[in-house]
Amino acid sequence: MIRNAFLFLGTFVVGALIALVVRAARFNPHAGHEPHAAGGGEYLPMVNNPIAPAEAYPGSSPAPTSASEQKASDPHAGHSSTTHATAAPDDKPVNTVCAICGMDVDPTLPTLEYKGKKIGFGCKMCPPKFKADPDRYGPYYLRNEVIKQ
Description:
The chain has four helices and three strands, in the order H-H-E-E-E-H-H. With 149 residues, it is mainly alpha-helical.
């Protein structure tokens, strides 16, 4: 009886190893897949990068020129609040370091106002945290310090 069990297990293991070797040899992970089209293909319309202009992507349509074309192409146009103003070159934030993440202030990100002063942020994740509790983070931004957690 034990001899038959060992014979069965041995045959099973050898068969499993043979099947594994054959499957590994015949495995082709890229079979039936087409490569991505040059210039972005169908993925291009899904890309939403407000920092880079649309002309930066090859094969893309040019940016809208008139205000009506821009409103038609951007469904979120006009939805920003008054505290969300992008930093103009002459209107710099009072801080150089983001108090929440510790990164240098990114001039391309929107700024917020705290006690009449512009506050800059290091990444896109920090403005919502600041909005949720401005009295906690605001003094650190005004002193240009990073919060010790």
